[in-house]
Design a protein that fits this description.
Elements: E1 8-9, E2 13-14, E3 29-35, E4 52-55, E5 59-62, H1 66-77, E6 83-87, H2 97-100, H3 105-114, E7 118-120, H4 130-138, E8 166-168, E9 172-174, E10 185-191, E11 197-206, E12 221-223, H5 226-239, E13 244-250, H6 268-275, E14 282-285, E15 291-297, E16 303-309, E17 315-323, E18 336-341, H7 350-367, E19 370-374, H8 389-401, E20 422-426, E21 449-451, H9 452-458, E22 464-471, H10 472-480, E23 483-485, E24 491-493, E25 496-498, E26 502-507, E27 521-523, E28 526-527, E29 533-539, H11 540-543, E30 556-563, H12 564-575, E31 577-578, E32 586-589, H13 617-623
Parallel strand pairs: 3-6, 6-7, 7-8, 11-13, 13-14, 14-16, 19-31, 20-29, 26-32
Antiparallel strand pairs: 1-15, 2-18, 3-17, 4-5, 9-12, 10-11, 15-16, 17-18, 19-21, 20-25, 22-29, 22-30, 23-24, 26-27, 27-28
């Protein structure tokens, strides 16, 4: 029988019909595995229509929030003395302002109170740096400035002390020596009725290529093949006498719309599930923000759980394993898995509600905190040449960010930090999303105050600025890539903002691909040299060609700098007074000629959820990026 015909689906999913009687199999040791994935700091609840999920035969549920989750967890844990609660990744790198504005510490406090036992590192756990994860999130070491950037008082009034749990990854390694950044696996133990201890091994994997994603771009890291790594550690655990093995995988799949079943599955996690060692008894996935619960056959044809619990606290997955008390092996035919909706129709747990309420109040206060002053408005409104005051501000920020000295906590680099000579920012990119999110409008009543929240929301979606060597020829080619012709023959213009030390002109009569002449591009007053290398700063999103300027993706010796949200706030603080400079960095020649055409600028659309509310900006940037969509037809981009 083919693999596709062997899937066992249902509510709940059972390895075999014998699983119906698993709860009465008292001769075996009951082990409960509870997991959530891709919380992304949404402590209050899933945004917009992400708060409604469908399952169990078409029924709709309103879900999300850590306060109801705590209540559900108490109920689920009741009667299960051997229970482990974990996540396969992306718990933080908060997309909710309440968490993100406080270095994601609110998420760690909530997970501590929820009793999380351990975590797999997802790609977004590296949106800042390996040191941020290991030294700050795990150990509580403050940096750079306590009380301003990290180490805020929590809801109990104490300074942030770090996670009460550990992070793991078997396949995320340092490029310099091949050693793992985090511990690869760990072993938990449960006691039998006669007092013996049975080991359960947990292997952890981070999505392949995480170090090359725009948000988690870390040039000094490398991810290893998932199947080979999992097989290696499964064999190691087995050689150590571990009879029960679970794989926690931050990579995903798509398997239909019903959260408590699975249909027509596809994706990298499914490919792994069908191939990875039969010694692995359950596969828990994440990363794709999808929801499914099913059994798939291992290479020997024996069913095992294959699950994903959505995102933003929508679902709690429960896997019930039965261990043979003598051998410690999982009795596979009795395995049961269920996805439980994290419904809001329960009394919220008071301790977690206290956390949520506290951080919401702190966020509101931080939102309006003054961090600088502006003497005029910075607007996205463009002139004929595509130039805007907000675009110029963004490009100047990128040059500043790409020229910053090395931060010892920014340890995900392998190349030297050479200061940037110029910067570009896609003001209205060809595809994807613009890093510029809003205007900074002068508020005379406040004396021109720039607030923390205003700066945070004006620029950024969670990606770092990267400085790298780019040839003058590629810079020229990228300037030419601002213009494209649609199938209908319309000329489109996707302007790049340039830093204050750059001047160039383009020919409004010229054909696509021949509008900018190198001798008309000046950097610090000198003509662009196509044969010379320049140190260019730009958001990682642009250098990785996520927004449609492929020439810039041919770069060398990249150095990752600070993430855009935090970096722009730091720029405003250091600059102190922002004054809009006169426009004129870009000029359009021959605009009055009969055949002249500057081109039509099309701003990226705001992506909306089904209920009409905006998709969170970091997620919108990922799912609209100019890159292959791994999910295939009907799927979605991984996050």
């Amino acid at each position: 029988m083919g693999a596709a015909a062997s899937y066992a689906l249902g509510v709940p999913a059972r390895a075999t019909a014998a699983g119906r009687d698993a709860a009465t199999a008292a001769e075996y040791v009951d082990v409960q595995l509870l997991n959530i994935t891709d919380l992304h700091g949404f402590l209050q609840g899933a945004p917009g229509s992400n708060s409604v999920i469908v399952g169990n035969g078409g029924r709709s549920y309103t879900v999300g929030g850590v306060a109801p989750m705590a209540a559900h967890l108490e109920r689920l844990r009741d009667g299960h003395p051997h229970s482990f609660f974990f996540t396969p990744g992306d718990a933080f790198s908060g997309w909710e302002f309440d968490a993100a504005a406080f270095a994601d510490e609110p998420t760690i406090e909530a997970l501590n109170r929820l009793g999380l036992d351990f975590a797999t590192a997802g790609n977004h756990e590296f949106d800042k740096s390996p040191a941020m994860l290991r030294r700050h999130m795990e150990q509580g070491v403050p940096f750079p400035v306590e009380g301003r950037d990290t180490s805020f008082p929590d809801s109990s009034g104490l300074r942030f002390h770090g996670a009460d749990f550990r992070y793991y990854s078997a396949n995320l390694t340092w490029a310099r020596d091949g050693l793992t950044v985090l511990p690869a696996y760990h072993v938990e133990h449960v006691r039998t009725a006669d007092g013996r201890e049975l080991p359960i091994g947990f292997i952890h994997l981070t999505a392949l290529g995480s170090e090359r994603f725009a948000g988690s771009y870390q040039p000094g890291l490398v991810t290893l093949d998932e199947v080979a790594t999992a097989d290696r550690y499964a064999a190691l655990l087995k050689s150590q006498g571990v009879g029960a093995i679970v794989l926690s995988l931050h990579d995903g799949a798509v398997a239909g719309a019903d959260f408590n079943s699975g249909s027509d599955p596809s994706g990298p996690a499914l490919d792994l599930a069908l191939r990875v060692s039969p010694d692995i008894d359950a596969i828990v996935t994440g990363h794709w923000h999808t929801r499914f619960n099913m059994m798939v056959p291992d290479p020997d044809g024996v069913p095992r759980p294959f699950v994903e619990a959505g995102c933003y606290g929508q679902v709690i997955n429960e896997i019930n394993l039965r261990l043979d008390p003598v051998t410690g092996r999982v009795v596979r035919e009795l395995t049961v898995s269920t996805n439980h909706p994290n419904t809001r129709d329960v009394a919220p747990h008071p301790g977690l509600q206290e956390v949520v309420t506290y951080w919401a109040g702190q966020a509101a206060e931080r939102d309006r905190t003054r961090i600088g002053r502006q003497t005029g408005s910075f607007l996205r409104a463009r002139n004929t040449a595509g130039e805007s005051t907000m675009g110029n501000l963004a490009a100047d920020w990128a040059l500043w960010a790409g020229s910053r000295p090395s931060d010892p906590e920014n340890d995900g680099n392998i190349h030297p930090n050479v200061p940037a000579e110029l910067a570009v920012v896609a003001a209205a990119p060809r595809v994807g999303q613009a890093v510029i999110a809003g205007d900074l409008v002068l508020d005379p009543a406040s004396g021109g105050a720039v607030t923390f929240g205003g700066a945070w929301r004006a620029l950024g979606f969670g990606d770092p600025v990267v400085s790298a060597w780019v040839s003058g020829q590629r810079i020229h080619d990228a300037l030419e890539e601002q213009w494209t012709t649609t199938e209908s023959g319309e000329l489109r213009f996707a302007p790049l903002a340039v830093s204050r030390n750059v001047r160039y002109s383009f020919d409004a009569q010229g054909p696509v691909g021949d509008r900018v002449h190198p001798e008309e591009v000046f950097i610090d007053g000198n003509p662009l040299d196509p044969g010379r290398g320049y140190r260019l700063a730009a958001p990682s999103y642009t250098l990785l060609a996520y927004d449609g300027y492929p020439s810039l993706s041919e770069f060398g010796e990249p150095y990752r700098h600070q993430r855009d949200f935090e970096s722009f706030v730091a720029y405003v603080r250091e600059t102190a007074v922002l004054s809009p400079p006169p426009r004129g960095r870009v000029t359009a020649a021959n605009t009055g000629a009969a055949a002249a055409d500057v081109g039509t600028v099309v701003d990226p659309p705001v992506l909306l959820l089904p209920d009409g509310t905006p998709v969170p900006r970091p997620e919108a940037a990922i799912i609209s990026a100019d890159r292959p969509q791994s999910a295939g037809d009907g799927g979605r981009a991984p996050c």
